[in-house]
Amino acid sequence: MNVTIFKRPDGRQEVIDCKHVHDEDATWFQSNNVSISMEDIGGMFAVYADIGKVDEDGEPDELIEISGTRNCFETLSALRKQCELAMATGEKA
Predict the structure, then answer these.
(1) pLDDT per residue rounded down to tens, the chain (93 residues)
(2) Which end of the chain is more exposed for a tag (fewer CB within 10 A), N or C?
(3) For strand 2-7 and strand 35-40, is the pairing parallel, antiparallel, or unpaired?
(4) What are the extents of the domains in the chain?
(5) How far is the C-alpha of 30 from the C-alpha of 45, rounded, in Å?
(6) How many other C-beta atoms can be found within 10 angstroms of the C-beta atom of residue 86?
(7) Distance of alpha carbon 33 from alpha carbon 59, whole angstroms
(8) pTM for this structure?
(9) Contact 38, 75 (CB under 8 A)
């Protein structure tokens, strides 16, 4: 699954093929046109999902999941659940 990584220290973007995602999560993100990006925030990752909503300034209104002690598989699964809720109800988790 393609993921955009924002690299330190300047935020340079690189698209990678993330292999640390469950097949069913990757399929769900792709079939729902959800773009995933992530950045290292000092020993953890902030993982963002763009589900196509924008805020009042026209900027993407992204959902976010912080990895904490979870691995990439677990973090992306949690982000998928958050996306499903937001897309079904319009609410963020």
Answers:
(1) 999 999 988 889 999 999 999 999 999 999 999 999 999 999 999 999 999 988 888 888 899 999 999 999 999 999 999 999 999 887 665
(2) C
(3) parallel
(4) 2-89
(5) 21
(6) 17
(7) 17
(8) 0.90
(9) no
